[in-house]
Amino acid sequence: MWFKSGALLLLALVALANGNTTSPGTPISTQRKVLCYYEGSTALREGLGKSIIADIEPALPLCTHLIYGYAGINADSYNVRSLNEALDLDSGKGQYRAVTTELKRRFPSLKVLLGVGFFKDPTDEKTADKYLTLLESGGSRTAFINSLYALVKSYNFDGADLAWQFRQTKPKKIRGIGGSLWHGFKKVFSGDSVLDPKADEHKEAFTVLIRDLRNAFEHDRLQLGLTVLPHVNESMFMDAFLLKDSVEYVHLAAFDQKTPERNPSEADYTSPLYEPTGDGERIAANNVDAEVRYWLTNKTPPNKIVVGIASYGRGWKLPEDSGPVPPVTVDGPSPAGPYTNESGRYSYAEICTQLPGSRLSTLDGAAPLQKQGEPKKAGLYAYRVKDKKKKLKGMWVAYEGPESAAEKGAYVKAKGLGGISIFDLSNDDFRGLCTDEKFPILKAAKNMM
């Protein structure tokens, strides 16, 4: 019902008039994008971690896009829905309307998109595969498209950012030579390497979904962005060569390569730009540069590729007998911080206030963390050695700081890529608690780009 005849021809003529020879429906801006994500539910936090819309406004002059999240999928109807209606909808606190109408009035050039998925849509045993089963029916795909279009139009969003919750790959376990041989032998007969028996079907259907959603959006000049989530095998689930023509950008969320949930006994850099140096068994593809090269190999225009930068870190308990140089033997997630209140996950403000020279101390334990890392290649980490006499708990945290974020901005510029993302604004130091400078990660990456 949304398709309009002649729309492709019209857009092609507009593209030619502007000197753009790319495929119809895929406008490419010469301006590098700065995608600023904002998770609306952080307005419900308590204390210094609470981030309301007014708190993110100082960042918006640096952003080309604001992606407000998150919406999810109703497992019965496959309609798109707000994950917090009391917060987002007009019948509640109306944050959808606040970010689209009020913020766009103050920042006319800002594009505000609705974020869908991003592993924020909770599932249980019954609904775990709703993002896959939706793809298997033309009727369910149509229900998804029509409901997303209606929600975007009703609340005056400029489009949507789709972060499809495909099944994540299993974490790689540390094995000796004997263990690796046995595991490989077992996989041949047990078939435990099959992540999705219908992967080919889902891959083809996802391409159709994105194409049809693009067609539904283009008459109203709505934008469609694609986010590739961590630990999603895009070669299995996404046809990169075909998808590139239906989206404005491909956002590579190449962070969370190691997390306390997936890797409770081994800590490492979470968002390396290149493969880290040093000892230890690592997966060569688990870095930003490898992700970028994959999409370039599949003919994605460089100026459509957006590099994701996480403004939070991952923390583990550091045992007394473990050294700090990654990869590190650890003992599960470290205690929750006071802002995010999540075990093993800290906003940059929670980390930087624990580094030497900070005015505050917010993480578990009174002693500051020692800062180390390879910002030009792998990222940053900080640690505190366990000391029973002083009753200090050991901690090891991998994170993104202004130095490493700047390197990613410089990388984007050097490679001629489409831009950067900050995930998300509420996890950057939006209050300026560490150095009196607000949003230091965003500013460092943007300035270098």
Protein model, in words:
The chain is α/β, with parallel strands linked by helices and 449 residues long. 29% of the residues lie in helices and 18% in strands. The protein contains 14 helices and 16 strands. The strands form three sheets. An eight-stranded parallel β-barrel has the order 1-2-4-5-6-7-9-16, surrounded by six helices. Helix 6 runs parallel beside helix 8 (199-218) and helix 13 runs parallel beside helix 14. It is globular.
Observed structural traits:
449 residues, alpha/beta, 8-stranded parallel barrel, 16 strands, 29% helix, 18% strand, disordered N terminus
Q: What low-confidence regions span 5 or more consecutive residues with pLDDT below 50?
A: 1-29, 174-192
Shape: globular
Radius of gyration: 22 Å
N to C succession of SSEs: HEHEEHHEHHEHHEHHEEHEEEEHEEEHEH
| Discrete helix count | 14
Major β-sheet annotation: 8 strands, parallel, barrel
The spatial strand order of the largest sheet comes to: 1-2-4-5-6-7-9-16
Q: Strand share of the residues?
A: 15-25%
* Helix fraction by DSSP (H/I, runs of at least 4): 25-40%
Q: Compute the separation of the termini in Å.
A: 41 Å
- Main structural class: alpha/beta
Instruction: Tell me the total number of β-strands.
Output: 16
* Mean pLDDT over all positions: 88
Oligomer: single chain
